[in-house]
Amino acid sequence: MDDRNEQDLLRDWAERRSQAAFQELVRRHVNLVYSAAQRMVQAEDLAEDVTQSVFVALAEQSGALVKHPFLSGWLHRTAQNLASKLVRSEVRRREREMEAAAMSRSPADPDAELWESLAPHLDAALEQLSEPDRDALLCRYFERQSAREVGQRLGISEEAAQKRVQRAVERLREILGDRRVQVGAAALAALLALRAIQTAPETLPESVASAATGSASSGVRAAGTVRPASRRTKQYAIVLAILVLLGIAVFLLWPPPAARVVNNPPNPARSSRMRIQLSSVPVDDQDKALRFYTGVLGLVVKQDLKVTGGRWITVVSPEEPDGMELVLEPIGLPAVRTYQKEFLAAGIPLTTLPVGDIRREHERLKRLGAVFKVEPTVAGPTTFAVIEDTCNNLLQLVQPPGAATAAGVRIRLARIVVKDQDHALAFYAGVLGFVKKQDVSANGVRRLTVVSPEAPDGPELLLESSDFPPARVYQAAVRDAGIPLTAFASADVEREHARLKELGVAFTMPPTPSEQTVVAIFDDTCGNFIMLYQQ
């Protein structure tokens, strides 16, 4: 083992290209970098990509870092930056695997659920600390050094180091609290000590050192980019679009009419000027998606606009040309692709489309070559079927209770994940001005929807509980990225902005003109950012 300090090792690599020196740097820090990357990307292979890229950047920038006082801080910050460019979150385990893991947790591990809710926020919270506080925590919990060693690294006494670590833990706890993660200081310190560092794969240090030193020697790769060899890490431009929000299968069926409608008349004092106008599905190939959604399902194109990085395409029912639009959304984040694959593998539809006569639609779609995963099936007062959309999504067609009609496929449901359904209802109804449409429970799951008071029989917004683990992790990652989870239409964004500001709504972006419209973004107090756009 090489006992030299980090600066000497860096200097040896920068000046003499000593492979042994660089390998020692990798050995010392690979677990720290890999653990941070794993928390942010939620996938082992992507975490390895990020880890390799961080050390490639270190190899290339070693000359400038020789005098850097604290290399761990630079490595952690670089890992976060590269992971943010690559993905915000990715869930790899299927729903049934996650449920099985949750059921098999040992009673002796009561903090597992707390860590699960805390981990997606940890690295972003660390970056909000002052540099001295962050360095103290990285030394103590991520490099697992004693208070005496922390003091030596930071050039302070052991007692001062202990106080700094305690102060940093308390500050980190406050930052996490702002992100709605409630944890005590003692519990946070224990979680960091036990769970902050994961052991990197055994072969990773060697492969990282080899790739980094080779890349730095050849000079063919720009620093700060993730290695291009990984197919799943290809960068897509993120267009102005709303990321797909996934649901729980048990409530894809419509409840009986007696239980479905809640008599809740509009409140003129709080009447919303907003409309629920958008739902979305993720697609790899927008032209292929258009052929299915228009040529087979029978929807028609509403918008096909060129935007930065791609196209903004929406389709509508020909019977409701000014009704709810379905966005054919290009997959912009690996996390979206992962969700899509998980739901497809589990046989869970990604969205629900009501039809007037499901038997007739089934016959028509079969003649057009559509593949049904579930043939028309009676479930209480409703009849449903599940169809493939040729774009790796399953769609559920539902004939609502009542007699069959001549209506074709319609778009009527959007979803959003919320942490507390009662709190969400208070905000969406009491502040935004929507009204409750459905509030029923089945099999322990509550279906709660709201509608615009001006369109009580129009599109519904499902306030879906975040009890589903992948949705919870995804919600946190998208929020950390500042990306809205859905959007509402308004005839006058400026007026809505003024009305909501008076009611205490926090806007992260005030009304801002763009090429096509005016947009604003606000916090819904339920863990989401929402876009408001003028139509």
In short:
This protein is α+β, with helices and mostly antiparallel strands and 535 residues long. The chain has 19 helices and 17 strands.
Characteristic terms for this protein:
alpha+beta, 19 helices, four-stranded mixed β-sheet, 2,3-Dihydroxybiphenyl 1,2-Dioxygenase, domain 1, 17 strands, elongated, 535 residues
Descriptive report:
- The protein is an alpha+beta fold.
- The chain has two domains: 6-233, no CATH class; 249-467, Roll (2,3-Dihydroxybiphenyl 1,2-Dioxygenase, domain 1), CATH 3.10.180.
- It has helices spanning 6-16, 19-41, 44-60, 62-65, 71-86, 95-103, 112-128, 131-142, 147-154, 158-178, 185-195, 204-218, 257-260, 286-295, 334-346, 358-367, 421-430, 469-480, 493-502; strands at 274-276, 278-283, 300-307, 310-316, 325-330, 351-354, 372-379, 382-388, 394-399, 413-418, 435-442, 445-451, 460-465, 486-490, 507-513, 518-523, 529-534.
- A five-stranded mixed β-sheet has the order 1-14-17-16-15, covered by helices on one side. A four-stranded mixed β-sheet has the order 2-5-4-3.
- A hairpin with a 2-residue loop joins strand 11 (435-442) and strand 12 (445-451).
- Residues 88-110 and 218-272 have low confidence and may be disordered.
